[in-house]
Amino acid sequence: MPEVPQPVTDNSVKVRQLSHYQFSWVAGEPGKPGTYTLQLVLDQGAWEEVLTLDPDDADNLQDLLTNTETVHYDVERRVLMFGVMKTGS
Question: Quick one: which of 41, 37, 77 has its CA closest to 58?
Fold first, then answer.
């Protein structure tokens, strides 16, 4: 059996399940574009992450999040993983 470093802490968990999310838009300086952010609430609030997005990414991510039942997030690599399926499905 492999040895697991102890203690297991919030910082040692690398992949978490997305529980909730919230898009926000922050106004830019006059005449400048605003900035979209996406707040990820992971594992029922055990971890949170805020991503800064361009408008196209925000639009695409909103579509993916709306249409995907289970989403995971790799905290270390900052990767959202969509459509997680059970093996054999």
Answer: 37
Do 18 and 40 contact (CB within 8 A), yes or no?
Answer: yes
Helices (H) and strands (E) counted in the chain, each on its own, are: 1, 5
- Regarding pTM above 0.70, the answer is yes
Residue % of the chain over a pLDDT of 90: 76
Cβ neighbours, 10 Å, residue 2: 3
Radius of gyration of the chain (CA): 16
85-88 long-range Cβ contacts below 8 angstroms, 24+ apart: none
| Residue 32 DSSP symbol | S
Furthest-apart CA atoms within the chain: distance in Å:
60
Token digits for 88?
A: 């054999």
Place of tokens 């499905």: 89
